[in-house]
Design a protein that fits this description.
This protein is an alpha/beta fold and about 425 residues long. It folds into 4 domains: about 35-105; about 120-265, NADH-ubiquinone oxidoreductase 51kDa subunit (Rossmann fold); about 270-340, Phosphatidylinositol 3-kinase Catalytic Subunit, Chain A, domain 1 (Ubiquitin-like (UB roll), Roll), CATH 3.10.20; about 355-430, no CATH class. Helices cover about 30% and strands about 20% of the residues. The protein contains 14 helices and 16 strands. The strands form 4 sheets. The protein has a 6-stranded mixed beta sheet, with no helix packed on it. Strands 2-7-6-3 form a 4-stranded antiparallel beta sheet, with no helix packed on it. Helix 6 links the parallel strand 9 and strand 10 (about 210-215). Helix 5 (about 175-190) packs across helix 8 (about 250-265). The two termini are about 40 Å apart. Residues about 1-10 have low confidence and may be disordered. The chain binds iron/sulfur cluster (2 copies).
Length: about 425
């Protein structure tokens, strides 16, 4: 996350960004090469996809034997490399690089399977073809028999600061959202659809004919856990997600992806996001999924100097990446470029017990105590005694910390390490 030098308020009132009345969208030309990331760890032995394979735009690419993991090619071209990529916390991904051909061909498979989709088939189609579409429609979750979903929340507001993707989609593609909602209702059998929107979106959404609830314009009101509490009146137990208590969250962009895919017979392959330049200026951008950040910077004449920082995601919850080759992914809602002189120093000053973090924490966590355990790697104690799992990952504590402690990074890292240890234990116990 970004820390800003203008911290001075104990209770920061951070207002969400809003899209222009008539927003303009800059289209980035198709790059010479794209890279697609799959969450699947690289496994050379079981690769199904081969180097030099030719692929078409919108083609589903299954990656491994005996696995249903896939990506969708956003271009027509030839696979030039399939390799391992290491992301946050050392997580391993599979990276597929495709050299783009001059002539574009659209793959037909989705058109054929979606043409006569019956009610049951459309759920399978969403899961098997649209998980890599813009916004990452949560197909697996819809068809997970262990979750009995009774409500779908469509987020038309954006969840982090500066981001305006969902707001843009609501303005520009309301028919696709309407179509997507109808498909979701039929496919999932869930009729309780709740739209969550900012005040300025209420009028635009009134034509959809679903319940609309207004979300506050102050960060972090649009995060799922707070929507659950403040709008649905349900508290998500610590360490659980909304889907564990029957509520599925989906972005307006993901709903529009479903609506557009079934309407056109093509899997959408273009992502909308906000580019924030070093001077803080913002632009709405549209690029093929897999476009390297460097191609986007080139289109905006942005020059990166040594030690400048690139952040993928919003300023409160995004993560730094270390290369201009890092590609736009289906869930990339912002790319932020920070000048090296504007990057605040992460300090190793100790906690002064000022209490600012506790006052801003929406989960009422005693962060000054929690942080002592996190700093020394005592993660189990942090979870058992100091509410680690109540954290809803808003990043406000890091934002306000006068000592410049990277609290939010500690929290994410602790949760990741504990999850990893639990998974290993479960595997060992058979
Ligand atoms: S990120 Fe920090 S402020 Fe936000 S919920 Fe977690 S502990 Fe509280
Ligand atoms: S962690 Fe930072 S904000 Fe929280 S009490 Fe300590 S110094 Fe203050």
């Amino acid at each position: 996350m970004i820390k800003r030098s203008f911290i001075g308020l104990l209770k920061p009132r951070l207002k969400y960004g809003s899209v222009a009345e008539t927003p303009s969208l800059k289209q980035i030309p198709i790059p010479k090469e794209i890279t697609l990331f799959s969450n699947c760890p690289f496994d050379k032995k079981n690769l199904l996809l081969k180097k030099k394979a030719t692929v078409k735009t919108g083609q589903k690419l299954l990656l491994y034997k005996e696995s249903d993991e896939y990506v969708v090619s956003s271009v027509t071209g030839q696979v030039t490399s399939i390799s391992s990529y290491t992301g946050d916390f050392g997580l391993s991904y599979t990276a597929i690089t495709i050299e783009v051909s001059d002539d574009e061909e659209i793959d037909d498979e989705f058109k054929d399977v979606s043409k006569d989709a019956s009610k049951d088939a459309s759920l399978e189609i969403i899961k098997n073809f649209l998980a890599f579409a813009p916004g990452n429609p949560p197909g697996k979750l819809f068809s997970d028999k262990d979750k009995s979903l009774n409500t779908i929340v469509v987020c038309c507001a954006d969840s982090d600061l500066l981001i305006t993707t969902n707001q843009y989609i609501v303005k520009s593609d309301i028919d696709a959202i309407k179509n997507g909602i109808n498909i979701l209702k039929t496919a999932t059998g869930v009729n309780d659809i709740i739209m969550v929107a900012s005040q300025s979106q209420m009028h635009e959404l009134s034509t959809i004919g679903e319940k609309i609830n207004q979300v506050n314009d102050t960060y972090p009101s649009a995060l799922p856990h707070l929507i659950m509490k403040n709008i649905l009146g349900k508290v998500v137990p610590a360490g659980k997600n909304p889907e564990d208590i029957g509520v599925c969250f989906i972005s307006a962009e993901a709903v529009a992806s479903i609506g557009n895919a079934f309407n056109s017979g093509q899997i959408p392959v273009t992502k909308t996001f906000t580019l924030v330049n070093k001077d803080g200026s913002k632009s709405l951008v549209s690029a093929r999924i897999g476009t390297p950040a460097g191609d986007i910077f080139k289109a905006f004449n942005i020059t990166l100097n040594e030690n400048d920082r690139i952040i993928f995601g919003g300023p409160m919850t995004g993560s730094s990446v270390y290369s201009e080759k890092h590609p736009v992914q289906p869930d990339t809602d912002a790319i932020i470029v920070q000048d090296r002189d504007d990057i605040p120093v992460i300090s190793d000053y100790p906690c002064t017990n000022c209490g600012d973090c506790i006052r801003v924490c929406p989960a009422n966590i005693q962060i000054n105590l929690l942080v002592r355990f996190l700093e020394t790697g005592q993660y189990e104690e942090a979870a058992d005694q100091y509410d680690l799992y109540s954290c809803i990952e808003c990043g406000l504590c890091s934002y306000v910390c006068v000592s410049g402690m990277p609290i939010f990074q500690y929290i994410r890292s602790a949760k990741y390490e504990l999850d990893r240890a639990n998974t290993a234990e479960a595997t060992n116990n058979g």
